[in-house]
Amino acid sequence: MFALVFFAIIFVAILYFLKFNKSSRELEHIPYVSALPVIWALFRNKPHDEIQDIVRKSSKGHDIYLSKLGPYVSLNIASPEYAKDLLMKSEDIAPKFEYRPGNVLYDFFGNGMVFSNGDKWRTYRNLANPAFNLALSPEMVGETTMDLFSFIQQNLNRPIDIFEVMQRTTIEVLGKLAFGYKFGCLESEETPHIINIYKFIISTVESVYRIVFPWISNLPTEHNKKFHRAIKEFDEFIFDIIETKRNKIKNNSEKYTNNGRVDLLTSMLELSEREGIHTDTKQLRDEMVIFFVAGHDTTSMSLSTSFYYLAKYPEMQEKARAEVISILGNEPVIPTSDQLKEMKYINAIIKESLRMFPPASGLSFRTLEEQIKIGSHVIPKKTLCTVNIWQLLHDPENWENPSQYNPERFLNNKKRHPFSWIPFSSGPRNCIGQNFSLMEQRVILSMMLLKYNWTLPKNSINKDKLMLEAQFLLRPVDLKLIFTERN
Ligand code: HEM
């Protein structure tokens, strides 16, 4: 029996190897780089910046190369010009790789916008675009920042986990933005039950083991059963919100739950009714899940990076505060859109934080539907491609002293390749929430600067450098800050 299993494994491994070699023959002009050192570092939970150092060293300076992470052989791009060649292709020539049921990404995200293609993607992106434009005014984020003040008042003068606090804040913002819902994360220290459910789901989706060995998710383990039960509970929560909204729109009764503001879901439902576009409840659920996931941990990471560096460099914090006071005065008030535009230094801080620690360090896979050219390389149809955003944002050719945090680099009008700063990706599949997130970060940072000073605790593990978890969606490790009230 043992021998049979052993030979079956060898046979499958040979088939797998031959399959890989077939695709690599068509791509033999592209160097192949082993991903084993990266996988090994991921399993040892190495900080993400160290993993990226390993990526850079093992790719030996190639800015286009093949490698194999888990079951996927992919073409990796790490130069702005090559990234442009891929990302500016139409969404039909370089569509997203579609995951199948049984893969944790599909099981949770379904066909949400990050992973959908063709008419489905176009329909929902077109429905969501105007909704995002309507959401750009700063009041809702400003009101949530007032709730953040109340939360921090309970925790003054002692170390608090800034990433956790930013998650609470951005979850509140996302709940109101996406479906006009108040989770109550800033009302008490207790985490709402549905958010605990969500955190369990997302920790499973992000697991390195499941990326490298996706079949783990199909085993009848207790964890997998709990994962599917958690998705069911999260789904019931979202389905309930969708049905309630549909009914309110049908009956024309108090649809605008969020201080009279239109949330994304209501806006998408109304537009679809006006235009006679059928919206499927399961697809709307997938879109809400994507907005929720794509929208809050990313912004929390970026804000945490800014708070961290402003604590590490007090003179930077003072300079940022002086700019905000010169525009808003000395009292914490909600800025207007025009006032936000004047905040050049705050904007440079946010851009530098996104460069230093891009919350999404790499892009999801594209599968080519046609042969394309990347630089002078001919890349055949069906090749799986991705862009390493981190490497673009730390490329010494475009960024002097890339590992140094320096917002001034965004104030000196230096000409750079337009694809050298793409933390939100670019082209037709760029981030739909980019402008919203930038506005959100400007509002929260500027109001917090008026209300508080903050420092790193003396014994912080992040004193010398910001420690990162291993994941591809970046997170800081144990990032505590001490807030004190100004005046
Ligand atoms: C700092 C904050 C954010 C960063 C760094 C970020 C980054 C990105 C990146 C890199 C992509 C491309 C993903 C890929 O091609 O694999 C993306 C797509 C997307 N993002 Fe964001 N994002 C942020 C905030 C948001 C927010 C606030 C929302 C919504 C509320 C959002 C919703 C989306 C959606 C729906 C897509 C898919 C767009 C499409 O394929 O048409 N993101 N984001």
Automatic annotation (TrEMBL):
GO function terms (MF aspect): heme binding; iron ion binding; monooxygenase activity; oxidoreductase activity, acting on paired donors, with incorporation or reduction of molecular oxygen
Claim: Iron is one of the keywords in the record: yes
Domain of life (superkingdom): Eukaryota
Cofactor section: heme
Keyword Oxidoreductase listed: yes
Residues that coordinate or bind heme: 431
Listed SUPFAM superfamilies: Cytochrome P450
Keywords: Heme, Iron, Metal-binding, Monooxygenase, Oxidoreductase
Protein family membership: Belongs to the cytochrome P450 family.
Protein name: Cytochrome P450
